[in-house]
Amino acid sequence: MSIAEQQRESRRPPRPRASEPIIFGADSFGTLTEQISSIPLTRKTPRVWYIILVISVSALVMFVAVFSFLLYQGIGILGNEIPVAWGFPITNFVWWIGIGHAGTLISAILLLLNQRWRNSINRFAEAMTIFAVMCAGLMPIAHLGRPWILYWMLPYPNTMHVQPQFRSPLIWDVFAVSTYGTISLLFWYLGMIPDLGTLRDRATKGFTKGMYGVFALGWRGGSRHWRFHEMASLLLAGLATPLVLSVHTVVSFDFTIAILPGWHSTIFPPYFVDGAIYSGFAMVLMLAIPIRSIYGLDNLITERHLNNCGKILLATGLILAYAYAIEPFTAWYSGDRYEMAVVHYRAVGPESWTYWVTILCNIVIPQLLWFRSFRIRPKRLFFVSAVVLYGMWMERFMIIVTSLHRDFLPSSWSNFIATAWDIAFFVGSVGLFLTAFLLFVRYLPMISMYELRELLPFSKPGGGSEK
Amino acid sequence: MRRVYGCAAEFDTPTKLLEAARRAREAGYRKFEAYSPYAIKELDDVIPMWDPLPLMVLIAGVSGTVTAWAMQTGIAIWDYPINVGGRPLNSWPAFVPIMFELTVLFAGCTAFFGALWLCGFPLVHHPVFNVGEFARVSDDRFFLCIEARDSKFGPEDTSEFLAQFEPIAVWEIDRD
Questions:
Q1: Considering chain A, what is the average pLDDT of its residues?
Q2: Cβ separation of B75 and A164 shorter than 8 Å?
Q3: Nearest CA of chain B to the CA of A460: how many Å?
């Protein structure tokens, strides 16, 4: 080694805990495969799975019923009224799509950053993304006046000679969300192909084997397969990283492009992206904590995972606190009396409770995460995550309602009143999400087996043998 | 007559697989494949291959940008011009978000379907599946298969060659 090289070497900071194992309890490839693949194949489905399924399917039925009645009756059944024309559906839309973003962050951005601990949680976080985008996509559709002609938003040759307005962020949204859904689905499926091959090889019943075989597409695990697979994963991760930022930026454009005080602000794109990741990590934790205890996976989803996710939650929460602090400052600094009025009414107006609930849930309570016990004790972390998820829903609701309810003309001022349909529609969408997620947990490998094998110390050639 | 696809050695560690693959290359074999339950980076030098995927994705991405630009410009200027207070019709900055989205959409779909196509998917059957033990390659076993189309291949020579790397077993794989 030359002197220059030595100097470069010594200047490099030591990598802490690089040798510390990420997962425990797997002393051979076989035990790891067995632990994960037995969940869809041989293990008895836990009773609590059925209980949650019954509840979430009931909510899903309610969702279908509300959606059907909405199509029949029109959006008048919801609380949307002038001036608050964007009520629950858009709140739900932004909330759901934000939740999805954490899945992409874990699967794509942490992959590019070589954060190998993500290998335990990326699969179900990606599944969460797919199902959250599914729920999100239905919300603006429900909110359309005539949902059955939603294809009018697409630029296709038609006999009316009418085309979409490409200068409108609402059309950007159509492209952004549909691209995001497509890419997330492809990325998720691509990552699952080797594990579907494992399930195909281990299934004993003909039908099960056949179904996994069809979706494994003929995976053999040859070195060429692995290289194409890895290259495609890297390329998709590289594409998904700017995509995820663009999607929530475009969602925030839905607000900022309007000249409405409280919406018309340059801080919105980063503020929204950060809030999206914040709420998404809260959802990841709310899914991971029950899963690891119900299925006994705490050797794979360890305290370190909870701790890391808790830290990300804390960091994104602090960025959000900055955004909350800068909003009133910008309003004051602008000298614009309408901007200042929005801040005033947010704090003390008739809908001010939404603002203070948001501050409490998103800024005050998550400070508990400074304590290590709140990051590694599952129940406490679950509690903070639930609070954050609720707070993030309330934040979007607050942004929509408090900016709209006090218009430029006092004669058109009015408050928002949610109807029972609004609440049923939202609860129903949670049912849709949970039903899809439960089926995923039951029938697909919810933790990536091949990526966990790479974490085992004997997976490197020359890296020792199995115990 | 029995037709042979190749000879495969079954190993229980990646170390042995890599060693066998390296030695096979040194011995002059070219048409062989290493099967493993996860990606082994070290095999990249032993089994070199041309990967056209990044180029395909780049071309698809650029064509996505161009498609989105052409579509929006064409519609906004000629096909369905919307005059809002006399603002210019060719307002290209407003077209950037969709140009970006279609770039990612085209490139991402190409990365996914391109990888499937390069892997030869979907495939209903492959000769290596004729060996029952091969099912464990998706779990904890490592296979090195020297294919019969290699000019150096001889059923006896090759299985003798593979037997020297302490395999669990050496299999002769039928083509059908």
A1: 91
A2: yes
A3: 7
